[in-house]
Structures are given as C-alpha cells and as structure tokens.
Design brief:
Layout: H1 2-5, E1 18-25, H2 31-41, E2 45-46, E3 58-61, E4 64-67, E5 78-83, H3 87-97, E6 107-110, E7 114-118, E8 124-128, E9 140-149, H4 153-164, E10 168-173, E11 176-183, E12 187-194, E13 205-210, H5 214-222, E14 226-231, E15 234-241, E16 248-258
Helix pairs in contact: 2-3
Amino acid sequence: MADAAMAFDREVETVGNAVHLEHVNTRVPDQRLATLFYVTGLGLTRDPYLMTGINNMWVNVGRSQFHLPTGAPQVVRGVTGLVSPARAALLGRLAAVAGDLAKTRFAVRETADYVETVSPWGNRIRCHAPAPEFGPIQLGLAYVALDVPTGHAEGIARFYRDFLGIPAATGRDAAGIFARAAIGAHQALIFRETAAALPDFDGHHIQIYIADFATPYRRLHARGLITEESDQHQYRFATLIDPISGAPLFTLEHEVRSLRHPLFGRDLVNRDPVQTNLNYRPGRDTLAWSMPG
C-alpha cells in the first residue's frame, strides 16, 4: 500500500488559506443597462432572493457573483475571467443586446481562446470555454487579472504569501511578467506588469473567504492596513505592500470573510440561458456550475 501511495502527487492537492473568490463589486449608474449586459447578454442569473430592488443587483455566475450597486461607474483595472459554456449561444446573446447598448462602451471581440466583451461602462469580461485549466467548472468566476506597475509583481506575490497565507508566485509568459495568487482550488488573482499609465483606484472591490481569519488580520492590523472593521465575520483592506520594504505596490479593496460568515457556501441559482420559451424542455431550467462527470 505504501508503494501505491507514492504514485500520487500530494502537493497538487494543497489549497492555501483562501478558499473562494466570491464576488467582484463595481458600481453601475443604470440597473436596466446592467441587466441587459450581465443577465441578457452574458446569460447570467439575477439572484432571486437577495438585493432584488432597483438600487443593487447581485448576479450569479456559478458559485460566485457580480455585485452591482447603483452609483458612479467603477471599472476594474484589468479583466475578469469567466468560464462560460456554449460559445455560439453567448455570441448570439451579445449580438442581440448590441443595439440597446450602442451608445455605451459595450464591445465584443473574439479570439481563438475566448470571447472578450466590455460592459456599458468599460469593465472587460473575458469568457472562456470550460477547459482542464479551470478544473470541473463549466460556469464560474475563474480569475481577476489586474494591471500593475512594472517591477511590482514579486512584491505582490510576497504580500499574499506573507500576509494572507495564500500560495503566490511570479511567472513570465508571452505577455510579460505576472504574479499569481491561488484562491481555492480553481480560482486566482493575477497581477500583470505593464509600463502603461494606470487610472486612479475608484473603490471597486473583490471578496474572498479565508480559513485562518485571525492571523492575516493581526498581520494587516500591525501594519495599519485594515480599512474597515465590518463585523465579527468580516474586515477589509485595500493597500498591497511589499512585506520587506513596506512600500505600497497596488490598491485593490479586499472584503475578507471567515468561513463562519452566514453567506459562506450559500447555494446560488443558475439558469440555463440556452433554454427559452421557444425551445423549452421541462426539467432543464437549471444549469449546474460543474461539468458532467
């Protein structure tokens, strides 16, 4: 039995302190246009239970969400990567909303690897087909990739390792140098170096769940980085610093929740957007977030 166990690579099963990237939050000035883009165009599902009014909308994407409160528009300085099945149907839906979004920043670009679309206010959403690199996910939030100044990737990787206990490393590909912080088994935060000027941070945020809630808090608090003492289950920080020099590297607000948070592991409703009243098949309203076995 011992020899058989040696055939398995146990290291690849290790998940760091962060267990889930739950949502990306950007304000939108028009809930109608947001519905057209995120629900009708992307084929995602408005949460039927929470935030059902006209001042905020939670949109389900597999086990994660977009949070879209009404306000001055916010734009992620990078791209949000989704896993989305049925590429042809996705392109058809995006084409169908193009007329209503014609006077906005809406756009669609196809490549061999993904469909990239731009929200009415400039947020870039990259939709990938299910693939082994995304594990079993067929619908979900796979990554948020941020543009960061040249020379900052290594310090950012150290920040996630040293402050949050999240596996993070730097790498290089055809597009240049990046840092990748693993969030759970199949999600990531990616920080890609660029020489281009970056817009000022506008207050958007991401939300992660972490298992060891207290140790990162103590480390962040000791450096004066905690920006909000939300409640027993949650705190926030925004500035990423180099743990060695203390120099600020990037700003991205993190909403950090414990696994005791009441919303952790909440079941999210996901519809199959291919299903319509014209091709309706009983019992197929729901789309599972994971691939069939």
